[in-house]
Amino acid sequence: MSVTGNSNRDNFSSKFGILAAAAGSAVGLGNVWKFPYVTGQNGGGAFLLIYLACVFILGVTVMLSEFTIGRRAQRNVFGSFKTLAPGTPWYFVGIMGVVAAFVILSFYSAVAGWTLEYIVRSVDGSFQSNESLSNAFSHFITHPFRPIVWQLVFMVLTALIVAGGIKNGIEKYNRILMPLLLLFLIILCVRAVTLPNSLEGIKFLFYPDFSKITAKTVLFAMGQAFFSLSLGMGTLITYSSYFGKKENLASTAVNVSIADTLVAILAGVVIFPAVFAFSIEPSSGPSLVFITLPEIFKQMPLGSLFGVLFFALLAVAALTSTVSVLEVVVAYFSEEFKITRKKAIVISTISISALGVLASLSLGPLSSLLLFKKSIFDLLDFTASNVLLPLGGLFIVIFVGWYMRKDDVLDEVSNSGKLKVKFFPYYRFIVKFIAPLAIAAIFIYSIFFGSLG
Ligand code: PFF
Known about the structure:
The chain has 453 residues and is mainly alpha-helical. The chain has helices at residues 15-26, 29-41, 45-73, 77-84, 91-124, 133-142, 146-163, 166-193, 198-206, 215-228, 235-240, 249-277, 292-299, 303-336, 341-361, 376-403, 406-413, 424-452. The longest helix is centred in the N-terminal third of the chain and has 34 residues, at 91-124. The radius of gyration is 21 Å and the shape is globular. The chain starts with 14 loop residues before the first helix and ends with a helix. 4-fluoro-L-phenylalanine binds next to helix 1, helix 2, helix 10 and helix 14.
């Protein structure tokens, strides 16, 4: 198996940079926006327990497998499969990854754009006006161009960071933004737990009521774990292709998963006490952070300050994720079509933004345009989260578990024997048997369940 030496490729320069960038990709809207409402709709603590199992059994395994592929091949996601499995159709998994990146970024950047509008609204006091916050939210997202302007601003910010390259763009900004995110999160947590009645919210998040667990809960938990850890589409294959040969892949995978889970739980600790303190339904769905929380900020002393902090947190979390998704597409275009990164960035940003604008418009002026009974926005979200990511994850574990030679995997995971890897037999067993079966079962159920829905 040939492994190309790519010594002239840009690389991460530090351990902290790698952790910040990989955690930056994982920590995003999935943690702060999606996790609390999915948890709210699926019974709180019981969901959390299943989620933890999904993250630490399946998630860590898939992540380590992505790291193994990426660092061994040192290429973009498509090139990685071409390098490690020459002359086979495995490159198809790489193509799927690039398509998934394209699809995710198109609807994700729409929501990311909303966070910028909401920072402005927190500052200028629009939350205090008499219009109901739910009307204000639907007016905004159905507006013909306002959300699109913010979405494009977000795409440009993302492109500018990626344009700096790995060391001087992605690593540099993640090293600044991730600690900042943690600071905002801690301030908001302290505020939330000191609200009256906050214990109710904490109880909701941590108290497991097993009667709430159904097959659907398991499906959601697993889908959420994949999305939240940025798995299944080669984001982490792409990032790890820039890791140094001394990096400990297994401990990085564990640390990133811990960091991602902690942020999700802390986001719950911010949101649920606030929701209970102001007697609002915890299961109010996607609008939880754009309608419910502003309602709470409106009633809270110094609410606009906490509003700005919260939406800035959301924006920063989203930005470090969009950067990692754009890099998948940019690395692919620049390496496979031998064009400069600059050209690749311009092409990918413009084409993704075009699809993104459609996704945005499908919530407003184009809302009557339905495909498979779904708006374009929902269809893109469904295709990526329920189809492409689990399918990608499935192929990735089959590739590492069954296609790659065991000795090659061991060589990569142990840094050519320099690291002790006592866990390897367990990892091998999960990647070969447990992970493919679990992911396939959940994927099939998801398709079935999705087509019923
Ligand atoms: N992990 C990000 C989040 O939780 O918001 C979203 C994401 C980024 C998904 C990168 C997939 C991906 F490849």
